[in-house]
Design a protein that fits this description.
This protein is mostly helical. It is 45% helix and 0% strand. The longest helix has 14 residues.
Length: 88
């Protein structure tokens, strides 16, 4: 049966390419992997999908809380103007 197979033009790698994705090797701590695996099991998704989603959230700044702007009071405005007028 082996004579029937011709692998001379075969290529190694994924059978179906994933556009927009790159395969990398990364070393993560065991407890981090276990955390994401447990969370993935509970949510019914892959742990790598969860890691990717968290990295995307951090990279885009979606998880950051913006500081609340305090309203400008008359006293604050006067203090700023005094400082600017007396600056050399």
């Amino acid at each position: 049966m082996r004579s029937e197979y011709d692998f001379s033009k075969a290529k190694r790698g994924a059978v179906i390419p994933s556009p927009g994705k790159t395969r990398i090797t990364i070393m993560l701590d065991d407890d981090i992997i276990e955390h994401f695996r447990a969370q993935a099991e509970a949510e019914g998704v892959g742990y790598q999908t969860l890691i990717n989603a968290l990295l995307r959230k951090v990279a885009t700044g979606a998880g950051k809380k913006k500081p609340e702007a305090k309203p400008l009071t008359v006293a604050t405005l006067r203090r700023i103007l005094r400082e600017e007028l007396h600056a050399p």
